[in-house]
Amino acid sequence: MATLEIGGIDCQRLAEISGTPLLVYDEAKIEQQFTAATENFQSDQFETEVVYAAKAFSCKAIFEKVRQAGAGLDVVSGGELYCAHQAGVPMEKVYFHGNNKSEEELKMALELGCGTIVLDNKMECQRLTELAAQLKKPIQVLLRVNPGIEAHTHEYIRTSGSDSKFGISIAKKNEIKSLVSQAMLSDYVQFKGFHSHIGSQITETTAFEEALAIMLGFIREMRDDYNIQTRSLSIGGGFGIRYTADDKPIPLGEMADILARTCEKLSAEKGVRLEKLLIEPGRSIVGEAGYSLYTVGYSKDTDTKHFLFVDGGMSDNIRPALYQAEYSCDIANRLGEPKNKTYCVAGKNCESGDILVKEAELPDTAREGDLLVMYATGAYGYSMASNYNRAGRPEVVFVKDGKARRVLRRETYEDQLRLDTDEQLTI
Ligand code: LLP
């Protein structure tokens, strides 16, 4: 009977020291993904930049890894921006996204010296130009546009693109032109180019190739029809990972290489010269590096199901409940035993939908006290965790070469109470 090791460490030992639920990251895997992306996303025709999408998983420790990898950082809130600043991420490498950034957030970005704001709409452009002038702070901008493709896991469909809450449809060329002209009038705002993001967990290249073709065509039209010069193009993130054996994603390095080559080829065909191409991977950097460890508690049989209950659930990973996302799992201390029974792995939150894995093939010897591992939980698990039922958020450890370090401590009852207050408001 073998026990799972992560980064050269026995999982049971980690659970003994840190308790469960526990989120373990294999640091070497994160580093490999950064290297795969940066080394393969290269061109001798334009500059390239890999920008990590913080929303997939953010904390100071991962931001330090972003800094070490020399990558850029995509943030979408004052909170992510603050954390990035505290972690020592060079502010000029930060891209601030979002469809409704507040005045406070824009001011904070300008004051901290954030490199690029990804503008989402006309009102925001107006607000930013005013604030940049007021504070006398220079800022580069990209404009998020919508190329009319929305990609899903296995297929992609064309949508009108006009009803997304993000960005402006590329069909609205006049609106885009007037926004860019407004930005260009400002002494402080420097228009750099466009941004598009077509979806997430995309496992094939077709939708990205199509998006690149559409964006480069659009860039040519903006140049020829409106004299708008585009220096940079970001094609967003969305590169898929392997959650279960059914997922067959293209490895990140290969994807990065294909995108750089496709952009070179299409730019030549369309007569467009870019100075810089960017990608924004989140999930594909941290997803497969993350392992959630849970302790098995009670089990029960119904007429149709064998339930196995674990000590976490939708409060630390809402993806199965929210998106019917599928994961694979094992009994970490029973590797090698025959997987001869189908269990329904359920969490402990007070909601019937709190099922982590609907049908998990596990050994029939699984019992209370065992350690259940869910694979590929490194993206959008912790970052979407909640305190539902006043469940504390799990501890997070990074492991590498037989060493482990705690990067986020377990949330305690006291931590949760620190927000409770009783203050008279002056009305
Ligand atoms: N860039 C932009 C502008 C984005 O909106 C996103 C993701 C990314 C980059 C990173 O995408 P990634 O490489 O991680 O797929 N909560 C959902 C995913 C939401 C993605 C939102 N935007 C989930 O758990 O599947």
Major sheet: size, sense and barrel closure? 9 strands, mixed
Helix/strand/pairing category: alpha/beta
Helix content: 25-40%
Strand content: 25-35%
CATH architecture of the largest domain: Alpha-Beta Barrel
What form results from the Cα inertia axes?
A: globular
Number of discrete helical segments? 12
Which stretches are low in confidence, meaning pLDDT under 50 for 5 or more residues running?
none
Q: What's the β-strand tally?
A: 22
What name is given to the CATH topology of the largest domain?
TIM Barrel
EC number: 4.1.1.20
Function: Specifically catalyzes the decarboxylation of meso-diaminopimelate (meso-DAP) to L-lysine.
Enzyme class: lyase
Binding site for pyridoxal 5'-phosphate: 238, 280-283, 380
Structure description:
The chain is α/β, with parallel strands linked by helices and 427 residues long. The chain has 2 domains: 139 residues, Beta Barrel (Lyase, Ornithine Decarboxylase, Chain A, domain 1), CATH 2.40.37.10; 255 residues, Alanine racemase (TIM Barrel, Alpha-Beta Barrel). It is 31% helix and 25% strand. It has 12 helices and 22 strands. Strands 3, 15, 16, 17, 18, 19, 20, 21 and 22 form a 9-stranded mixed sheet that branches. The protein has an 8-stranded parallel β-barrel with strand order 4-5-6-7-8-12-13-14, surrounded by 7 helices. The longest helix is centred in the middle third of the chain and has 21 residues. The termini are far apart. The relative contact order is 0.16. The model has no long low-confidence stretch (mean pLDDT 96). It binds ligand LLP. Ligand LLP binds next to helix 10 and helix 11.
